[in-house]
């Protein structure tokens, strides 16, 4: 990719939730741009102040300031979920501030919502501002080429495994079950990555239901089946990892059904963010599952101590592991390299690296103009990686119902006849993803 001189100012904006490695991108992009003769402006708190036309919440970044932040978690520029594309007036304010500050190039760091915002800045500026977006999310659900991860994912998985290992030891020591809800709105990569690497008892992700409706009853039955299977093996402890995206799989209608019994207020409230996503953090999903599961286990005569725990906020602003520290340096450098290329005068792009080479992906190739989002990269439940994970989970499967000895052992654990047990739980083995 050929380079050309790029003068003026480069702006940096961070949007969405934190992810380990943000400062690495800021550092690398700023150093490379300054070395190429540009002045670098860091905007505070994403688009929050820009949409208000506030041109004062920024600072000039220097090499001395950013050269030491690449290994730090969090974001020295803060972040926000402000959506500048929500109204014409907001976008006009953003463009006016950028024009007034002589911003000729912009690097945005964020997920698919920030990517859409960046694409609209490029489109509305009419070629006056070159734009490169660096994709980040610990969810690893952005459609980058091949198996290229989003930065922050590897650090989040690494630290998540350490935490889950500690909880697993506590579960073993105290004979209890932990229900861990892992971040992951649209896909189960983080939940599965943590669960598989930590060798937990069971991991449940939205993809295994292959788009069909999911109910709280079915989800709890899966967990009950795991508890029963462990009891039949004389084991009274376990660890379950649930992807928080299961909340959206159940949907507002399923969650609203809890209101009929006046219970929903116990588990939070249903609200949406500026990008129209369900605010999953407002719903105490782990507690909801724990209460429902406790009730079902008691009905079966099983005395089980359950502890629910959310896992995600501990991971988002952690110091990046070496993988993400190196990877984000490549991405920050690559963003500026793209902005200095002739191609950046033709289109705005999402920065991607394939085989160590920069591969800018045009916004229009990845962002659906109708949904204003990228198509989520989901776990392939028919691939060997998921099938391997499935084989080492403790959950009811076809063999438990086709083998008469297994079936009899499971049924006797809850004082049921084999026929009654099969009628009650047999449907759980019918998912194609579990075959």
Q: Can you tell me about this structure?
A:
By secondary structure, this protein is of the alpha/beta class. The protein has three domains: 9-151 and 320-374, Rossmann fold; 153-316, 3-Layer(aba) Sandwich (Rossmann fold), CATH 3.40.50; 396-435, no CATH class. The chain contains 16 helices and 15 strands. It has helices at 22-35, 63-66, 88-100, 112-125, 153-174, 189-197, 216-232, 246-256, 285-299, 313-316, 322-339, 363-366, 384-391, 398-402, 404-413, 418-425; strands at residues 9-14, 39-43, 58-61, 103-110, 130-135, 177-182, 202-204, 238-243, 306-311, 349-350, 353-354, 357-358, 361-362, 367-368, 373-374. The chain has a seven-stranded mixed β-sheet with strand order 3-2-1-4-5-10-13, sandwiched between helices. Strands 7-8-6-9 form a four-stranded parallel β-sheet, with helices on both faces. A hairpin with a 4-residue loop joins β14 and β15 (373-374). α7 (216-232) packs across α9 (285-299).
- The rough form would be described as elongated
What is the CATH C-level name of the largest domain? Alpha Beta
Helix content: 40-55%
End-to-end C-alpha gap: 46 Å
Number of domains: 3
Find the structural class using helix and strand composition.
Answer: alpha/beta
User: In terms of per-residue confidence, which ranges show pLDDT below 50 for 5 or more consecutive residues?
Assistant: none
CATH topology of the largest domain: Rossmann fold
Report the strand count. 15
| Radius of gyration, in angstroms, nearest whole number | 24 Å
């Amino acid at each position: 990719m050929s380079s050309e001189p790029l003068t003026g100012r480069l702006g940096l904006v961070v949007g969405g939730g934190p992810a380990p490695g943000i400062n690495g991108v800021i550092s690398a992009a700023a150093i490379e741009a300054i070395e190429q003769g540009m002045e670098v402006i860091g905007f505070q708190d994403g688009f929050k102040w820009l949409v208000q036309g506030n041109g004062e919440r920024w600072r000039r970044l220097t090499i001395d300031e950013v050269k030491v932040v690449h290994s730090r978690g969090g974001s020295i520029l803060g972040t926000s979920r402000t959506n500048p594309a929500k109204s014409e007036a907001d976008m006009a304010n953003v463009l006016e501030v950028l024009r007034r500050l002589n911003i000729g190039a912009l690097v945005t760091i964020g997920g698919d919502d920030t990517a859409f915002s960046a694409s609209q800045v490029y489109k509305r500026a009419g070629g006056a501002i070159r734009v490169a977006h660096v994709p980040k999310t610990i969810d690893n659900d952005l459609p980058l080429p091949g198996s290229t991860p989003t930065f922050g994912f590897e650090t989040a998985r690494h630290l998540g495994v350490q935490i889950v290992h500690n909880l697993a030891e506590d579960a073993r020591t105290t004979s209890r079950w932990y229900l861990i809800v892992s971040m992951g709105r649209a896909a189960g990569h983080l939940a599965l990555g943590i669960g598989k690497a930590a060798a937990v008892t069971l991991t449940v992700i939205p993809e295994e239901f292959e788009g069909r409706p999911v109910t709280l009853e079915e989800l709890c039955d899966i967990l009950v089946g795991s508890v029963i299977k462990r009891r039949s093996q004389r084991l009274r402890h376990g660890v379950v990892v649930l992807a928080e995206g299961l909340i959206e799989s159940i949907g507002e209608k399923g969650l609203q059904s809890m209101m009929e019994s006046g219970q929903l207020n116990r588990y939070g409230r249903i609200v949406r963010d500026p990008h129209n996503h369900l605010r999953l953090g407002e719903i105490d999903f782990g507690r909801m599952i724990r209460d429902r599961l406790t009730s079902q286990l008691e009905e079966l005569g099983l005395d089980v101590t359950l502890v629910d725990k959310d896992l995600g906020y501990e991971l988002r602003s952690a110091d990046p592991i070496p993988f993400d520290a190196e990877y984000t340096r490549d991405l920050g450098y690559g963003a500026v390299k793209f902005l200095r290329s002739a191609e950046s005068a033709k289109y705005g792009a999402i920065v991607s690296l394939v085989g160590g080479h920069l591969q800018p992906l045009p916004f229009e190739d990845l962002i659906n103009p109708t949904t204003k989002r990228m198509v989520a990269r989901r776990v392939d439940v028919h691939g060997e990686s998921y099938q391997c994970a499935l084989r080492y989970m403790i959950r009811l499967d076809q063999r438990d119902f086709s083998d008469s000895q297994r079936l009899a052992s499971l049924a006797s654990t809850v004082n049921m006849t084999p026929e009654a047990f099969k009628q009650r739980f047999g449907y759980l083995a019918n998912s194609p993803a579990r075959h």
